Amino acid sequence: QVQLVESGGGSVQPGGSLRLSCVASGFTFSTYVMSWFRRAPGKEREVIAVISSSGTNQNYADSVKGRFTISRDNDKNTVYLQMNSLKSEDTGVYYCGVLGSWGPGTQVTVSS
Predict the structure, then answer these.
(1) Positive or negative, the Cα torsion across 43, 45, 46, 48?
(2) pLDDT at 96
(3) What is the rounded distance in angstroms from the CA atom of residue 104 to the CA atom of residue 112?
(4) pLDDT tens digits, residue range 11-38?
(5) Could you report how far apart the first and last alpha carbons of the chain are, in Å?
(6) Helix count and strand count (H, E) for the chain
């Protein structure tokens, strides 16, 4: 079955950076589009970044465009989210997702 495990979250000041990782198993990773989602406090989970199976194409929500970068390493079955210039509104639980499944998530808190 699909298994996804996110890591790399933490607490950071506004303007700081974090790099999230998501290790996948249980499916042929290199053939699937992967996504990062975020659930901010009191809000619905939203998709914020998507990467094609080869890694060639990426798409971002307007709220993170220009600050976040999604990438993947198909040899390591891992998808990444580099987050720069973090803002307080980026606070939330971050999940990677595929095939309607998500991992347990990793908490990101941006606060001074």
Answers:
(1) positive
(2) 96
(3) 26
(4) 999 999 999 999 999 999 999 999 999 9
(5) 40
(6) 0, 11
CB 58 within 8 A of CB 4: no
Return d(Cα 22, Cα 6) in angstroms, integer.
4
Pairing between β-strand 18-25 and β-strand 78-83 as defined by DSSP bridges: antiparallel
Separation between Cα atoms, residue 29 and residue 23, nearest integer Å: 10
One-character DSSP codes across 14-52:
TT--EEEEEEEESS-GGGS-EEEEEE-TTS-EEEEEEE-
Tokens of 76: 């390591």
> In this predicted model, what pLDDT tens digit does every residue of 27-82 receive, in sequence order?
999 999 999 999 999 999 999 999 999 999 999 999 999 999 999 999 999 999 99
Residue type, 98: V
Report the C-alpha gap between 50 and 89 in whole angstroms: 20
Amino acid found at 53: S
Q: Can you read off the two tokens belonging to residue 43?
A: 């809000």
